[in-house]
Known about the structure:
The protein is α/β, with parallel strands linked by helices. It is built from 8 helices and 11 strands. It has 2 domains: 197 residues, SPOUT methyltransferase, trefoil knot domain (Alpha/beta knot), CATH 3.40.1280; 62 residues, CATH 2.40.50.140. A 6-stranded parallel sheet has the order 8-2-1-10-9-11, sandwiched between helices. Helix 5 links the parallel strand 9 and strand 10. Keywords: Methyltransferase, Transferase.
Amino acid sequence: MRLWIAVPSSLIEDVNSKDERTRKIGMIARAAAIYRAEKIFVFRDPLGERPRDAEFIARVLEYAATPPYLRRKLFPIADDFEKVGLLHPLGIPPHRRSKELKPGEVREAVLELVGGRLYADVGVGRLLEYSGHGQAGRRVTVIVKTRNGDYFCEEASPTEYWGYDVSAVDTLPKLVRSARPSHFVVTSRHGVPLVDTWRRLSGIASSDESVLMAFGSRRGLLEMHEREEYESLGALIVNFIPGQGVETVRTEEAMIAVLSAMQVLGEIGAAAPGAGGNGN
């Protein structure tokens, strides 16, 4: 499956410490990267008390996914970023590049205009000539090449998991209508027990289609919008943690539990006879 994740702006509403807010967002980033999420959407909780938190959450998630050597250029120093040093590294491929260049290596870069020509900062202490069209200040994925003994680079597409894109968006129903995922799964303690829907989820998880997995905060998703509204959008509402022993499962805890289950279900579906369906 092509995993898309949606979390609410109220994710950190009940967390007052900057340290804890940053750590909590960092745990979301780690969970998303562990399970190879393509996209994270931070949607507006219509009952939320601090709607501007969506932009903060999205920026920290984006910061976490950015290679360390590009962060100073892409994220100006701000008061709300003073605790980002608490974030645990994601350890995804674009973060694991050395100072030594290798022909054929794919890297993340930021373009710079020098003397009327475009160059790329690829994190090796010097700029590489950039072959192609672009705009100064733009972040781009490049491949390193050589020409007459000199290194240069041009735009390329990653060939391995490269991290996630982040967007701050309006409410969850509006997100579903605009993004139009192939499948939409709402996680809720009031949903259908996993044991009753695992076959359908297995088909979804083993497909190559987009799957939007939505998570709540201290408010469940069914408190934010009526069940009927989600169902009208084709949502599958699932209780992934039946019989939970605590009053509330935190978002970051739910993500690990749910995405782990989806990965296992995907492997089961892929191994089943006649695998390769569309999850219907």
